[in-house]
Automatic annotation (TrEMBL):
<dbReference type="Pfam" id="PF17806">
    <property type="entry name" value="SO_alpha_A3"/>
</dbReference>
<dbReference type="GO" id="GO:0016491">
    <property type="term" value="F:oxidoreductase activity"/>
</dbReference>
<protein>
    <submittedName>
        <fullName>(2Fe-2S)-binding protein</fullName>
    </submittedName>
</protein>
<dbReference type="InterPro" id="IPR051691">
    <property type="entry name" value="Metab_Enz_Cyan_OpOx_G3PDH"/>
</dbReference>
<dbReference type="InterPro" id="IPR041854">
    <property type="entry name" value="BFD-like_2Fe2S-bd_dom_sf"/>
</dbReference>
<dbReference type="InterPro" id="IPR041117">
    <property type="entry name" value="SoxA_A3"/>
</dbReference>
<feature type="domain" description="SoxA A3">
    <location>
        <begin position="11"/>
        <end position="87"/>
    </location>
</feature>
<keyword id="KW-0560">Oxidoreductase</keyword>
Amino acid sequence: MNMDSKDVIICRCHDITEQDVRDAIHDGFDELELLRRYLHLGMGPCQGRVCISMVQRILQEETGKPIDQIGFPTVRPPISNMPAKLLAFKEEVSK
């Protein structure tokens, strides 16, 4: 079975195909951070553990840049911990 690049899923979290990534690179999103923001790569539940290395390889093929120039995405952890109860829905209290 010969798979076309448009059929190969790169990011399972957001159903992004290899062709989506290549098209975005050709549209000018030719840096890892730009691709992440445009396609939401690495922003799903896996946080890029599955897709980022494949995207780096595609960027290397399409741009000719070595992997060390492509780099890794910027990790932005939460500023501080937040108790889950603060996110719970509260009904508005009458004044």
